[in-house]
Amino acid sequence: MSPSPLSRLQTSRRGLLAAGGALAATGLAGCGASGRKDVTFYQSKREIFDHIKMLLAELDAAQPQYRYVHDVASNLSAGFARRNPPDVALQNYNLEMSRFRERGGLSDLSDMEEASRIRDDIKDLADWYPPYPGRTSVLPWSVAGAAVIYNRAIFDEHGLSVPTTWSEFTALCTELQDAGVTPIYGTFADAWTLNQGMFDYTLGGMIDVRTFYEQVTEIGEEVGPNAEHSFSKDWQEPIARMLELLPFHQDDAPARTYNEGNTAMANGEAAMLLQGPWALPEIAKAETGAEMGMFPLPVTEDPADLKIRVNIDLALWIPEAADQPEGARELVKFFMQPEVQDTYNVDFLYLGTTKDAPPATDPRIVEMQSYYDEARYYMGASQFIPNTIPWANYLQAIVFGEKPETMLARLDSDWASLAYRA
Amino acid sequence: MSTASTSTAPRRMRAKVRYNVPATIILLVCAITVAIPLFVTINMSLKTTAQAVDGRAFTLPAPLSGDAFAEAWSLTDLPRALSVSIFITAIAVVGEIVISSLAAYAIVRNWHRRLFRWSFFYLLAAMFIPFPVVALPQVQMTGMLGLDNPVGVAALHIVFALAFNTMLFTAFLRSIPISLEESMRIDGASTWQVFWRLIFPLLGPMSATVGIFAFLQSWNDFMMPSLIISDPRLQTVPVLQSMFQDQFSNNYNVSFASYLMAMAPAIVAYLLAQKWVISGLTQGAVK
Amino acid sequence: MSETTSTPPRASTPQRSSAPPPKESPNSPKIDPIYYFFLFPALLAFTLAITVPAIVGFGYSFTNSIGFGDWEFTGIRNYIAVFRDEGIVGAYLFTLGFALVTVIITNAIAFFLALGLTARIRFQRTLRTVFVLPMVISGIIIAYVFKFLFSNTVPAIAQTLGIDALSQSILANENLAWIALVIVHAWSTIPPALLIYIAGLVTVPEEVYEAASIDGASPASKLWHITLPLVSGYVVINTILGFKGYLNAYDIVVGLTDGGPGVATRTVAMSIIRGFEGGDFGYQMANAAVFFVISIIIAIFQLRLTRGKASFGS
Prior knowledge:
The structure holds three protein chains of three kinds.
Chain A: H1 5-20, E1 37-43, H2 49-62, E2 66-71, H3 76-81, E3 88-91, H4 95-102, H5 113-116, H6 120-126, E4 139-151, H7 152-157, H8 166-178, E5 182-184, H9 191-206, H10 209-219, H11 231-243, H12 258-266, E6 270-275, H13 279-285, E7 292-295, E8 308-317, H14 325-335, H15 338-347, H16 368-373, E9 377-379, H17 391-399, H18 404-421
Parallel strand pairs in A: 1-2, 1-3, 5-6, 8-9
Antiparallel strand pairs in A: 3-8, 4-6, 4-7, 4-8
Helix pairs in contact in A: 9-11, 9-17, 11-18, 12-13, 17-18
Chain B: H1 2-6, H2 8-14, H3 21-45, H4 49-52, H5 67-76, H6 78-109, H7 114-126, H8 131-144, H9 150-173, H10 178-186, H11 191-202, H12 204-220, H13 223-228, H14 237-241, H15 252-286
Helix pairs in contact in B: 3-15, 5-15, 6-7, 6-9, 6-12, 7-9, 9-12, 10-11, 12-15
Chain C: H1 12-17, H2 34-60, H3 77-84, H4 86-118, H5 124-132, H6 139-161, H7 177-201, H8 206-214, H9 219-247, H10 251-256, H11 268-277, H12 281-305
């Protein structure tokens, strides 16, 4: 619009900033001044912003070549679309992200020594989503082990021990209810909590998630009532079981949100919450001193079926289109150092991904470690449905009283339609 | 509501100083509904984390705490983000007023010419294009043209608002009598001079309106800068603040402080400008 | 168009003929070329920044693009899928109903507020300032604040007062959640409509009312026969723009209900943007194209309804 927009931007910005005052440290002048190259580093999860910022400052001080630009704001889809994504990222690895990988958007890191230190079963976890053949594109950095969070004091008070079968679990809930204690705190207003909690736990406990998705992907367009496998068919039973959990929730569960659930747990308003380790620091924030523990939700009568829900909380990746691949690799190396990676996982209650990672010792998640090491886990079934299908909303409708058959049939047709137009 | 409105007209002409008391009272009551959410925001943001965690909106903060602001301020590097937002907004406001009023003037004075009339309908129709349709191609195009920065965002704001603004200016221009213009032309003024000396000043009230809309749209917009700007250091306030606004925290006080900080600049700017804006609006009445 | 190089400063006569009301022959002899300069650079930028991307986006609706990497042409498969998708049909019905209710409520309130605010009232300036204030705040923030109010404050108050119906959050009620959306959209979009009505109302000359009063017209009939026709152009602008805005409702919906509970408040714009972010780019472009056509039809219908009252279209 103007003859030299950039120079104008520069001047006016400087003027404004002089007024604003606090700019010197951030250094807008580009890479010229210090002779360092700018490397853009994207991070998801704002809860850990402070921690990552501290790590970046450390990395900046440790080497003279690169300066790392901390990015929490960029839109990744837009970045990839204009072929200008961040140079390196530490991000929650999920289906949406796997799309960039599947189409070759992420570079191969298999030659890095760090890649070989990652547990094979955890590397494979990333491949539950479509991989790009022949490349190690993502390095899992932390894994969340999720299950039933329970208030140890309440369990002790009522002389309850951790249940290992469905009937033990329901008996325990009934006992709590008889004693006037809400067994499970529901936060149905945030649909995602239904997905990650009662839905993923019952599904994962009753069906083989990975095999199921391989089957319906294979069937594709034909998924529906007449197919060998379909959502309506294979999920009917787990969903019915899931709905049996509803009476054990407090009355206003439909109106409560994730945040309120954490506060309620801290205040001992309920004995259990179906959440992941990310909720534990939030519960601790209320400073009530309530002690928490975790156990897998039993959904069958066989204790051998017990499994926990895992997901790749954070993974490192470098796009093919990175401007500074070398600087990006420096960062990956830095983040993969045991003292950096393990400290994060210990402090934030996640599980390590490397062969030599120390086991979790925090009493809140200590019960997760053995399941994790014995590969008794699944990825959440909800994590394989693309965002374009509003499954969280369908599930919420079911929980609010809609017939499961109706919503599952809709999911079938959405899935089939997706395959039809692919 | 209707009492207020219908009793308006007669009062207006009879007594100069007599106020319409029922209308005033009704409007004051209505104003409370505007104030409540704002009060809650300020109130919550001044609490400590421990007090805010209970989620009660109307208990007063005790003790009064500024922690939330300090935290929100340092996490978002607010001064830098503010300067980027101000830069984008300034270009958008000036650009929208000037470019749209010129376009509207050309359209109104040449309405009988098919080319101009159709241009107008073209703009109107394009106004209905849903943003997502153009989003991705725009992302690619601004990337190719090197406009994946605040300048590109400001330019896109101007263009996006063109149809709406032209519509407003066109409606207003039709109420300006042509006779004023003709006498000026007889005195030998060019179209250029007529526009700048006569028409543009007369457009004051509508320019004020367009200016406010332009300011608010570009100030508050999240989607466009988040998609278009590629350098995270050149991001705007709403985009950076969005990281406080997800649902993964029960620090209500920090969240509300960030809401307040997101609102505050626009509210302050609006309060400073409102004298000019409101009088700009009422200027029309004098005419 | 005629290419006569008129000398701008002296060209007073041709301009006279270009006054809007009298219908001139479409090829009036002279046009000051500066008018082209006024309009066409803007038009060109508009075409480059909006029309061209829209055409490109429309082109993607015939592909299986995910918004990144390679894609293939899939013909009209996406369109067939759109019409088969019951979720999308539901979103269209909800969006249309929601937009209709909101546009009526918002315009009615804004119009009467504007009448009140242009009357002889005390604190006129302060009140105007206050009523315009909600416009200043971005939709997503408004949504978060109201979400907090609806899910905590309102039920708490209702419980103290013993009002059962409101003691549960209306956001958790599939039949009532849309009301919350209407309230919040009205709260945040009354100001722009209000400003436009005020700007319109203050241009109505007082003499008109005086003349009517002398003729003995009642306040109601003055409102109906004088005020409304005089500001009808602004009513048209506000309803068309309002409708367009509510049809595209996105950020408040996401912040407040996220389309729920269940799928009770899922809007079309939400489906489109979610799909766009969810790697379903080509399909949602087809959806958006259908949506565009429907929006245009509605706008034309609105214009037809108000034909003659509109301040444009001669």
